[in-house]
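Appendix B. Worked example

We walk through a single record from start to finish. Start with the input: the chain for Nitroreductase, Fodinibius salinus, length 222.
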Amino acid sequence: MSRSNFIPHTDYKRYPVKEMRQRARSFYNEMQRRRTVRDFSDEDVPREIIEDCLRTAGTAPNGANKQPWHFSVVSDPEVQKEIREAAEEEEREFYENRATDEWLEALAHLGTDANKPFLEDAPYLIAIFSKSYGLKDDGEKETFYYVKESVGIATGMLITAIHNAGLASLTHTPSPMGFLNDILERPKNERAFLLLVVGYPKDDVSVPDITKKPLDEIASFV
Ligand code: IYR
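Next comes the structure step. The output line below is what the pipeline stores for this chain.
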């Protein structure tokens, strides 16, 4: 294997074990406070904060470093209204027809319905698109690899960055999401992955009384 184009990884930082323990615990403590909220304040958020969170997402590991994602950031109230109307139409179809009884039962404790006011209330919507393939300047297709995995990882890092900045988010997945390509004028090699709603929670927001599984239920050490 040729490594002639490699450079020294001088950014790597090794910490003493004691400090690693503290860092691992304190990051967990920080992240376990993250909650998805469904009621957003219309208070504005400085755009540079969103930009830095997106830069973080863009550092995600991904297939062959093709970076098969696009983040379409919406803060224009007219476009948000359009997205809300289109999403609610799909959601009405979901709640009234498409969802199985089992699915509706699984969602009941979250208190969701087809009404999505947060799509207009929140200062930012980030529509995340995965690129199924690339398009070179000459119009030729470029193969991308592990697209879903890559975009999923970048999205997780974006959600983490948004929480770290002190904002709340909601992963919203109206399905199908083809309307996002139309409204946001994205090309046909892009597919909407999810819609992230970002902003401050409304004052006195409440969240479902749910817990995460303990470590011994989600991990095994062999
Ligand atoms: N997309 C719908 C339904 C929904 C589905 C799941 I799975 C959730 O965890 C939450 C909602 C909606 O956004 O209401």
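Two observations about the output. The chain has a mean pLDDT of 97. The beta strands are 69-74, 124-131, 133-135, 141-143, 168-172, 190-199.
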